[in-house]
Amino acid sequence: MTGTASKVPFPLSDRPRLWGVAVSHYQVEGDDPCDWTDWEAAGRTNGGACGRAADSWSRYEEDAGLAGALGANAFRFSVSWSRVEPRRGEFDDEALERYRRLVDHLAATGMEPVVTLFHYTHPRWFHSGTPWTSPASVEVFSRFAERTARALGPAARVYTILNEPLVFVLGGFLDGQIPPGIADGRSAASALDHLLAAHAEAAARVRDVTPHAAIGVAHNMMEFVPERRWNPLDRLLANRADRLYNAGLLEAFRTGRWNFTIPPFTRFSGRRDDLPGSLDFLGVNCYSRLHLRSPGRTRVVGDFRYVDRSGRGLTDNGWEIVPEAFERLLRRASSLGLPLLVTENGLADAADSRRSRFLEEHAASLERVAADVPVAGYLHWSLLDNFEWLDGYGPKFGLYSFDPVTFERRERPSAQTFRRLGRRFLEGPPAPQFTRL
Ligand code: FCB
User: Fold this and answer.
1) Of ligand 1's atoms, which has the minimum distance to the CA of residue 388?
2) Ligand 1 and 164: CB distance under 6 A
3) CATH numeric code, 18-426
4) How far apart are CA 7 and CA 212, in angstroms?
5) What pLDDT is recorded for position 162?
6) How confident is the model at residue 298 (pLDDT cuts 50, 70, 90)?
7) Residue 116 beta carbon below 6 angstroms from any ligand 1 atom
8) What is the DSSP string of 63-76?
């Protein structure tokens, strides 16, 4: 079943600008056995076990309050598929009810829930029988999406169906670094086909349940530049990487067709006619830029490195801080002709010595873009420190830290900056409309 796109007004007419925070279920909730838990147990990560994470499963309302105290009017979270459907076809009403309570609480306290339905993890049963390389995955994911939308009710009116589908496919099916840990080009291409089909189908079902919901996808964008500007091979590699990583999915959502290659042999190509109508907005997750050199020092195709070219220093996990790249990438993203929502942007900074300036400069970039194209809002990654997928509790992305024993949350000084910038952003003019649509 596929539905036709209902073009709901977005940015929301009663909340034309969103300023808030983002978290994801596995990274904050704790005690959620799933494929990622098995990955940790098999020693496939550098960061050990997730365990209780930030204990948000029992503290979501407290976390919503912390977001409110930051002046946020939007809260992005994801729904854990493994909690909601612990056994194939068996749904856990209590888990769904827990998310419904969160949605209602957010709405009642003046915050827009921004709901993500897939943020990397799967129930343990998923990969056998209905893996992403099989068309059966589309139906099981869509059924979960529909069931969840029904449970969340009408107060959930902004959805990003998938978080970073391409990053997931590259990590899970080509590099084999994340579950399901496959390293095979054909499987990667097939997984992307089914993920995009699952997105379109789930979008249609969510719309059937909640016709006023605005639907998006969270697309990770990264700037790629030649390490040596004069070197044709570095430039070629940067170009290729951009085409694959940034433009490939934009093109798929714009035209319903995708066609790109990862050297040497992996070709992604496909068609899905209901993709272009499946989005009401484009979510962008944006963090940094990479410097490319070819041939690489260790790998033939090339090296991908973070370099502190702009002199702002690197984040704790070594990412370059480049607010100009954030601006350029958002402008690129606007080529889709859809309103933009920054669904993630932030940095690992335990000492909190760089976060305020980072926020100031990224907010300034955002405002410049918002003067020209519809920007619905900005969601900072993250509200609080959390379990970073492969690196565990090392990187500290939070506006709040928490005590690992008592789980008591503590505001970092940069939260003040976030609050002040939010006040200014929310008072800004409503988004300009696209004229060429
Ligand atoms: C993004 C992920 C998010 C978090 C940040 C740091 O790519 O979507 O879960 O890990 O990176």
Assistant:
1) 10
2) yes
3) 3.20.20.80
4) 9
5) 98
6) confident
7) no
8) HHHHHHHTT-SEEE
Side-chain half-sphere CA neighbours of 154 within 13 A = 2
CB distance 118 to ligand 1 below 6 Å = no
Query: What pLDDT score does 2 carry?
Result: 39
Determine the residue of 29, 286, 388 to mutate for testing ligand 1's pocket, defined as the one with the most ligand atoms within 8 A of the Cβ atom: 388
Residue with tokens 């029904």, as numbered in its chain: 150
Query: Ligand 1 center to residue 437 CA distance, Å?
Result: 31
> Is 385 a pocket residue for ligand 1 (Cβ < 6 Å)?
no
Q: How many CB atoms lie within 10 A of CB 69?
A: 12
According to the model, what pLDDT value does residue 4 have?
Answer: 43
Cα 284 from Cα 237, distance rounded (Å): 23
Atom of ligand 1 nearest to the CA of 167: 7
CA 375 distance to own-chain centroid: 17
Q: Strands (DSSP E) along 59-105, which ranges?
A: 74-78
- Is the beta carbon of 382 within 6 A of some atom in ligand 1? no
Is 0.85 topped by the overall pTM? Answer: yes
The span from the CA of 208 to the CA of 101, in Å, is: 22
What is the arithmetic mean of pLDDT over 232-244?
95
Break the chain into its structural domains and give their ranges: 18-426
- What is the 288 CA–ligand 1 centroid distance (Å)? 12
